[in-house]
Amino acid sequence: MHCYLPPFKSSITPGKKLLREYSGIPEDEIHDHAEAVRRDPFKVAPYHCIGMFQFLDLSLKTMDIYQEVLDRVKHGDKFLDLGCCLGQEIRQLVSDGAPCENTFGSDLYSGFFALGYKLFKDEDRLKTIFIAADAFHETSPLTELAGRMNIVYTGAFFHLFSLEDQEKMALRVLQLLAPKPGSLVIGRQSGSEDAGAFTRSGDTSGRTHFRHNVQSWKELWDRVGKADGSRWSVEANLDAPEFTLIAPTGKSMDLQNKMSAHELRYIIRRL
Ligand SMILES: C[S@@+](CC[C@H](N)C(=O)[O-])C[C@H]1O[C@@H](n2cnc3c(N)ncnc32)[C@H](O)[C@@H]1O
């Protein structure tokens, strides 16, 4: 599969800071190091976000809830990054003082974990537990964490799936969390003012992806809470579009999809 590989963005300041301060990579070597590592994840799976250096575009720390998350993990709460890919958000927490023993990462592809160690140069010291699993599977190794997590981070994750699969995944996430007030699901994904399903151009598999607005996302968690017998408060907002909304005549469906995409950020808290 062809993937777009834009040049290294000099604007990826938080990721560069992490590589400098946490990984000890000198400033003048960061560009070449990130560029060299970026090509490897495509051998594992060709996600668009990897080509875009999203693994250096740290999101969790930009959320208002970051300080609460950091304090809680410092005091023993267990944090899982579901669909962690290279695990950059875990490294940020650890760099800010969270004990790595309280952090967990999971992804469909174990190959990403080795690349995360290579990117962040921390295989000898990071004690995070990484679990390779399909989170949809009822009997995957991830189920060992059931009921033990306090915070699950899901970045650029739910939007990979159809609405039906998102509901299944949301139920899986609830099962991973401790069944008590304060358990948290946080994250971000592509959203849209008009909620709906879309297909990627060139994708002949028939797979659809569902993009939410605030209301449809809240409704999904209401349904999932009812099915699970739990209650959740959902804070969500759609940020300004990342791309211009000028109608793209003659442009590909992919580009049109991106042009109507906003970022949906959310904090879902068990009551
Ligand atoms: C678009 S990437 C996002 C990576 C990272 N969370 C971020 O915010 O940059 C989505 C990740 O979810 C993983 N993934 C997709 N389907 C999965 C599944 N069924 N179970 C576990 N991980 C999955 C992919 O392998 C990929 O690493």
From TrEMBL:
Question: GO MF terms on file?
Answer: transferase activity
InterPro entries, alphabetically?
Meroterpenoid_MTases, SAM-dependent_MTases_sf
Pathway annotation from the record: Secondary metabolite biosynthesis
Alphabetized UniProt keyword annotations: S-adenosyl-L-methionine, Transferase
Instruction: Give the UniProt family note.
Output: Belongs to the class I-like SAM-binding methyltransferase superfamily.
Task: Please report the name of this protein according to its UniProt entry.
Answer: Methyltransferase domain-containing protein
Q: What species was this sequence derived from?
A: Lasiosphaeris hirsuta
Taxonomy of the source species: Eukaryota, Fungi, Dikarya, Ascomycota, Pezizomycotina
